[in-house]
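User: My instructor asked us to take a sequence, write out its structure as tokens, and then describe one feature of it. I'm not sure where to start. Here is the sequence I was given:
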Amino acid sequence: VEHRLPPGTKLGEERLAKVFGVSRTQIRQVLERLAHDSIVTVHAHRGAFVSSPTVEEAREVFAARRLIEPDLIRQATQAAKASDVRRLRGHVASESAARAVNDKRAIIRLSGEFHQIIADIAGNRYLAKTMRELETLTCLVIVLYDAPNVPACPYHEHSDLVDAIEARDSERAAALMVGTDKVIAKFLG
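Assistant: Let's start with the prediction itself. The structure tokens for your sequence are:
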């Protein structure tokens, strides 16, 4: 998520087992789970690698987000409590602080977390799980296609989304979310 391991990086079981102080069997299980989520690609007789989504796969990730997120934010807008709005505002403040010091890794991570918080507020655990997977793949796509200057989301959009949630304006929130996803997908053409 923070681009510490670029797409294509080999993930050696023995080294990972040593780093984390666990067995290779446990590492293999984790790699299988990550492969299930398309975060890792396992090649027979070659090992596991951080996935490198194709352009078509990247387009599919963004298409899935454009389908899911508008309804997800409508649900979150209706379900949000005052404490959820405070949590979102605190998160937006953290994003602003990361932008102020140009911490690109934190900006991308926090932007993804914002969308995950929205999914959690909506209260649909299946959509929340799907968003976790899509967010991770979005981060891989951004680094893979060398788009570090493409903002995870424009700096003001998350604040605008929180305003719409607080006002219980689900249609405005959905429209803003679609606009955010279009910006993210723009560099893929």
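For the description part of your assignment, you could build on this observation: The radius of gyration is 17 Å. Try explaining in your own words what that tells you about the chain.
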